[in-house]
Design a protein that fits this description.
Layout (H helix, E strand, L loop, with lengths): L8 E4 L4 E4 H4 L2 H27 L33 H8 L11 H9 L14 H4 L15 H5 L6 H4 L4 H4 L10 H12 L4 H6 L16 H5 L13 E2 L11 H7 L15 E4 L2 E4 L7 H14 L20 H19 L5 H22 L23 H14 L9 E2 L2 E2 L25 H4 L29 H5 L32
Antiparallel strand pairs: 1-2, 3-5, 4-5, 6-7
């Protein structure tokens, strides 16, 4: 009997079960496996060639923006291994060397645009630079144009949907003035012989050079033609004598001979008239030096520890975001004092000039050093506490004299602690957003959006709330006025249309790489 031909089967397991070799190594599977291995080797070769000879250009996400084009062939400048870009890599170029302020930190982004120091500080939800500013979008990509999706991960979903209204910024405090728009608009319309309210508004609200906002209101330009004419005078005020409460004559002020009295030598003595023990002044000028000097002396009696507040024209009470304004005003005053004393030979004048120069050095150093803390407490009036050595009768007498002395001023200005309240002259309403009037004036008139103030026609009565008509009102429209146009099918409603948190380009000089 012939032996059966062997089929080429192998064995499988300890039981020596027969199995065909082609089951373990199918011919079709061999081809697929070999092809996969070949492709893997080719890919590895391409990646290696790109990494070592092409600096990763073949596997990058796309061309870098124009600002980072010089890093196109240097992936390692931003990417450590295959990890995402972190803030440390960005700070190598974008932060000043050794800068502890974190000029481009997430928290400081708020500070640059809003000026709100209370918003600066580390936040638990802080994100990295690269999470908002996405690269590899091409040379024309703008890194500051953050996609809405990035904003919506932390904020509301859309401008049309649940964007907050403008109520939080619609009205602020009194802005330091007694002022009614309605009355003034009607007066200007009559003077211009027009019935166009918008023309009357633009008589005072002058566009800035960019057309985006407005220049600050200026007394000489906008108010002086109507207010403080040549006939305006102070009441007859009691003269100071010894410890008696009163005001000083021009001669008495000149006799002080200190730095703050230098203005008196160029003042017109004929504007002051003395009758018996009383004196009056005609006319009263805006920021009248005689009134401000006497007001300063009366304030010193109420608040003897006035600190740097004596160097200010108006009240030292400002928001923390405007402390720099106080320092700048104090610096201007000291420089004026120093200029007036230079060239005099008296020993006491030289001593006072040395004190002024030392204060000037301190203020200049603090103003020009971005890391120097500016302390608004240096301008406080004894923390608001009246001198305990004064009797209640003396306090009331001084306050009454302050009211009489500033009678011509208080027709517009408010007083606080024997100081003229600081006027909010700018028209900025938003601190966390920006608005470009220039882009809107071809579509809407001023009064189409700014309609909250009650300004009736000459023969009508106001129908809106008259309480809204004051100097502090921002007169912002309702948010639905903006939403009429800014919607997906019309004008852009992207977050970065209004919100720019990147440091202001006008401040780039303070953001140099090295210091």
């Amino acid at each position: 009997m012939t032996k059966p031909e062997r089929s080429g089967k192998g064995t499988f397991s300890s039981l020596q079960l027969p199995v065909a070799a082609r089951y373990l190594w199918p011919s079709s599977g061999r081809r697929l496996l070999l092809l996969s291995m070949l492709i893997a080797v080719l890919l590895l070769a391409l990646v290696s060639f790109d990494f070592f000879f092409r600096q990763g250009r073949w596997v990058s996400g796309g061309p870098l923006s124009s600002a980072h084009a010089f890093l196109q062939d240097d992936c390692a400048a931003c990417h450590v291994g295959f990890a995402k870009v972190d803030n440390a890599q960005c700070s190598v170029c974008h932060e000043k060397y050794g800068d502890e302020l974190g000029a481009y930190s997430f928290a400081t982004h708020y500070l640059y645009r809003s000026g709100d120091v209370e918003r600066r500080g580390e936040a638990a939800e802080e994100v990295t630079c690269a999470q908002c500013h996405r690269e590899h979008g091409g040379r024309q990509a703008a890194l500051s144009r953050v996609e809405d999706g990035r904003c919506e991960t932390c904020h509301f979903a859309s401008f049309i949907g649940d964007h907050p209204a403008f109520e939080a910024v619609r009205q602020v405090d009194s802005a330091g003035l007694e002022f009614a728009h309605g009355h003034h608009v009607l007066e200007v319309m009559e003077r211009l012989e027009t019935v166009d309210q918008e023309q009357a508004c633009l008589a005072c609200h002058h566009a800035d050079s960019r057309g985006q906002g407005f220049e600050p209101i200026d007394f000489d330009l906008h108010c002086g033609s109507c207010h403080l004419g040549g006939a305006v005078a102070t009441p007859r005020l009691p003269l100071a004598s010894g410890d008696d409460i009163g005001v000083a004559t021009l001669a008495a002020i000149r006799g002080r001979g200190d730095a703050s009295s230098q203005w008196a030598w160029s003042a017109n003595p004929h504007e002051l008239r003395t009758v018996g023990r009383r004196i009056s002044k005609t006319p009263v000028h805006h920021r009248d030096p005689w009134i401000l000097d006497n007001l300063r002396q009366l304030r010193r009696r109420l608040y003897p520890d006035a600190g740097l507040a004596d160097l200010l024209i108006a009240s030292p009470e400002v928001p923390a975001t405007q402390t720099r304004l106080l320092y700048e005003e104090a610096l201007d005053t000291l420089e004026m004092y120093a200029k007036g004393l230079q060239g005099r030979s008296e020993a006491e004048v030289h001593a006072e000039l040395e004190i002024i120069e030392s204060w000037l050095a301190v203020l200049r150093r603090e103003l020009h050093d971005p890391q120097a803390p500016l302390d608004e407490n240096a301008f406080l009036l004894s923390l608001g506490e009246v001198d305990a050595a004064l009797s209640s009768t003396e306090v009331e007498e001084i306050k009454s004299l302050v009211g009489e002395l500033t009678q011509a001023c208080t027709s517009c200005h408010l007083l606080e602690r024997a100081s003229v309240q600081r006027v909010q002259k700018d028209q900025q309403a938003f601190r966390r957003a920006e608005f470009d009037h220039r882009a809107h004036v071809i579509e809407r008139r001023c009064v189409d959006c700014h309609y909250a103030i009650a300004i009736p026609a000459a023969d009508e009565e106001a129908t809106k709330d008259p309480a809204l008509d004051n100097a502090g009102i921002q007169n912002l429209p309702d948010i639905n006025v903006c939403q009429d146009c800014h919607r997906p099918e019309m004008a852009t409603d992207a977050c970065v249309t209004c919100h720019f948190f990147h440091p202001d380009k006008q401040r780039h000089a303070a953001l140099l790489l090295y210091r």
